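pinging the channel bc i need a second pair of eyes. not urgent but kinda urgent?? the chain im working w is below, pasted from the shared doc
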Amino acid sequence: MGFTIDRIVLRQISLPLVHFFETSFGRTTERHMVIVEVSSQGVSGWGEVTAGENPFYNEEWTDSAWLIVRNYAAPRVLNRALDNAGEVNGLTGHIRGHNMARGGVEAAVWDLQARLNGNPLYKEIGGGARKEIPCGVSIGIQNSVPELLRKIQSELESGYQRIKMKIKPGWDIDVIREVRREFPSIKLMADANSAYTLADTDHLKRLDEFYLMMIEQPLAHDEIIDHAALQAKLDTPICLDECLRSAHQAEQAIRLRAGGIINIKLGRVGGFSEARRMHDVAHKAGIPVWCGGMLESGIGRAHNIALSTLENFVLPGDVSASKRYWSRDIIQPEVEVTPRGTILVGDQPGFGYQIDHDFLRSVTVRQEELH
């Protein structure tokens, strides 16, 4: 069934985190996100631009995303007759970079299409391989090792199946050793967020003694070739994140044997269409994938749940409960994790949750409506 988008509303919201989140490139205490609402036939679909507040993860940040969506991505779909939400990727594809801005619009259109068709979002994107998502958590750099150990213990008691800890030079080998001493058998991975170079190969080789599931994106955000050189020296699988923005780049990385695992983030690759293509490339090559997180609100979190139902998402992702990040989320009910560390996938139309409109209004700091 075709449809025409006749209205787009952009909202910038501000949500304080219940606990700071620190990576190798800084500490975050409050998230500013752009929420995209697209409407047709009196029905709305919702998307989230997952860019951070600063251009540190990639070139995008909240303010740049607002301008790209308002001035470039939204006008290319507004009042456009669409046969399928997958067309949005092509309509915005000539915008260089800015995948998160483009992906927020595309995700909203997919959600709209699912609601118009009366389908759950996971079904609309071709998912449904599982109705229960295995969950892991991402734990940022803490103020001390004892604080980190307490936080890991708390997450394990909540049922989470995998722990990802952020690392950087000076917070890596000795810290992981303490974690392994305390938790010798948990599924553990380390995320470097591009904090190292190939000159650190011997240092990174020391991670092999800790039998990690993977080390995520140890080298530069745009580097594939050096990751191949590093992977040849390590027993620990490298998981590629920032450096893979398209299915074609995933194909290149696989040919070069630059890593053994791929993290697919919906925003980083520009939305569901490219995420599915990357998933299919990895699946064909026998490379497992998992869904990464960007400190999303409930809207982005619900999209990640739908994405994680695709067949090759076989590793626990960073799709965790709302309460880990927010004292109150913008969706109802909030995302919850079962005692066995999973999220149940619902069959309601769209992404499966209701917008808490009163709370959304209260945390909106900027709004603009496009017709």
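so The two ends are 22 Å apart (CA to CA). and The chain has two domains: 3-118+356-365, 124-344. — does that match what u expected or am i reading it wrong
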